Each structure stands twice: as structure tokens, then as C-alpha cells.
Amino acid sequence: MVLVHGWPFTWVEWRAVMPLLAERGYTVIAPDLRGSGDSSVPAGRWTKRDEAEDLHQLLGHLGHERAFVAGTDVGTMTVHAWAQAHPDDISRLVLSEAFLPGYGLEDHMNPAAGGSWHFGFHAQSELAALLTEGKEEQYLSGFWSMMTKGGITESDRAELLRAYTRPHAMRGGFEHYATLVDDGRTARAGGVLEMPVLVLNGEHGLPQHVLLEGARQAAREVSADIILGAAHTFAADNPHATAERLARFFTTNPGI
After folding, report:
1. Which molecular function GO terms apply here (predicted)?
2. Is 256 among the domain residues?
3. 83 in a domain, yes or no?
4. Best exposed site among 3, 29, 229, 245 by fewest CB in 10 Å?
């Protein structure tokens, strides 16, 4: 099982749910995306397809041919790109707490039309990194507080702050946003997914209907569910319910 984090997080976002999934017999892999956590921060831009290639290569390097895959936030965008580029890698796919490039995201990127301001700011990755240098904790702490219902602990925040104050780490995180328009064009041309897809959101997270409507265009077999008592960081906020729902999707008919 491969779990792919969002922004402004690292693999730590999945820490609480990982042992629960391991107890159910899964080999759990939670990598840091390119540019995030303890992964390298390359120069220049990279697309979701580039990140997807990283995950494809990692899966093979670890000796696995197929996996159950779950992504959240920008990790959802990456695993969707992975499923399009290498569909044989992924048995079943979970998309959560995001809007999909090419399938609804663009409508929420324009502040003049009611979209969120941070997409445009983060997309100017080098400028955004310059303006937040030395102010990483002040900038990120508001996101962490808004996105969790207590699952992201003080020790988690300390680890995340360590990761995001590494050299070039803020730019590395912002680079996930820098190519979203191109990512959308690529996704639209990438074809419809054939593997079963589950759309999962926290009860107090992003409105699910945007991702669900996009997923129904992007995949043939889609179901949806909510993790109660949880916000954007649902796997940290309610790890037991998350582990149960993931395991049920990965082992039974996704509509059940």
C-alpha cells in the first residue's frame, strides 16, 4: 500500500494510520514526494507526471509490481497522474481532499471567481519561497491549524517544521503548484481510469462534491465515503476509521 502526502506535510501525515494498516497485513510505503520532506529538491520545475514517474520507479525498486494507492491533497493529483501513466501499477486508487487538475481544479484557482488565493501565490514558487524565507513557521502554522482536528500533534509540527526549513524546502513544496495548469492539460489528454476509485474526505475537510464530480469524469468506477470527526488531515484525525475504510475498499467491492 502506497500512501502519498499533501502540502504542507510529509509522510508524517500518515504516521498514525500506518501501524494500523500494517497490523492488517499490508506492507505500507509512505514516501516523501520530490521536493518535500527528506527527498531532494531539484532545480527547476517538475510536473505531476514527473512525480508519478518517481513513484513508479520507487515501487519497482522496492520489489513490488502492483500496489493499492492512496493520495491526499497534492498527493491526490500525483497519484491520479501515476494511475494514468502506469495503470498496471495500481490495483485500486483512493483520491482524497483535493481538486483534480483538468477535472474541476481550475475553477477553484481564480480568486476573482471565488477560488483560493494560495494557488496563484504558490505557483510563483521562487517568489513565494523568497517571501516566506525566515517566516516558515508563521506561514505554515495557520495551514496546519486550519487543516486538522487535533490529529497533527505538536511533535508532528516540530518534525514538519524541521523538514520545511531545510535549504530550498519551501520552494520544493511550492513547486507542486507551479505546473498545475499544465498538469490539467496532461490529465485531460491522459484517458479514463479503469481501476476502482474511492473518493474519501474528512467530515470537516474540503467539500467532497468537487472531487467526486471530477473523479466521475476521470474514472469509470467511483465510490465515495466520509471519515467522521476528521478534517483535511483525516488519516491523522481519525486513523482507526481511516484504516478500516481503506482496508474495506482494498479488499471488497468498492461500492460496499
Report:
1. catalytic activity
2. no
3. yes
4. 229
Look at the chain and report how many structural domains it folds into. Answer: 1
Residue 153 belongs to domain with CATH number: 3.40.50.1820
Which residue range is the domain that position 82 belongs to? 2-251
User: Along the 256 residues of the chain, how does pLDDT read in single tens digits?
Assistant: 999 999 999 999 999 999 999 999 999 999 999 999 999 999 999 999 999 999 999 999 999 999 999 999 999 999 999 999 999 999 999 999 999 999 999 988 988 878 899 999 999 999 999 999 999 999 999 999 999 999 999 999 999 999 999 999 999 999 999 999 999 999 999 999 999 999 999 999 999 999 999 999 999 999 999 999 999 999 999 999 999 999 999 986 444 3
Domain membership of residue 95 (yes or no) is: yes
Q: Is residue 73 part of a domain?
A: yes
Neighbour tally for 134: CB within 10 Å: 9
